[in-house]
Amino acid sequence: xxxxxxxxxxxxxxxxxxxxxxxxxxxxxxxxxxxxxxxxxxxxxxxxxxxxxxxxxxxxxxxxxxxxxxxxxxxxxxxxxxxxxxxxxxxxxxxxxxxxxxxxxxxxxxxxxxxxxxxxxxxxxxxxxxxxxxxxxxxxxxxxxxxx
Length: 148
Hints:
2 helices, 16% helix, 5-stranded antiparallel β-sheet, alpha+beta, 5-stranded mixed β-sheet
């Protein structure tokens, strides 16, 4: 009987915890606000994602987020991507590294978790959908280094 009571209590706690989780639609938006086509690479030691974005074009990656006790988003990649590279016209590259999902820094990092409200992402709502926008601009191009 005591084990049955413990099991019932455990089930109630798990059910209440799951009831607090809310799923919502979201978009990671990468805006290429330069005159150069670019290649975006985000990766860690086990995963690599690559996207091509034409000059003056936008990449939208739709997905879903969970909020509750643990906040997660599945928008192309998650917050575990440590490295990000933006290659402009295959001639200049801007590299970002050292991002930890546990630390929210003020510097820009395309590979960062957009939900935290930092890393250069701007949050907005469009028709009830959360949109996390990262804009790559002329300053990013000027800060990129030539590829040898």
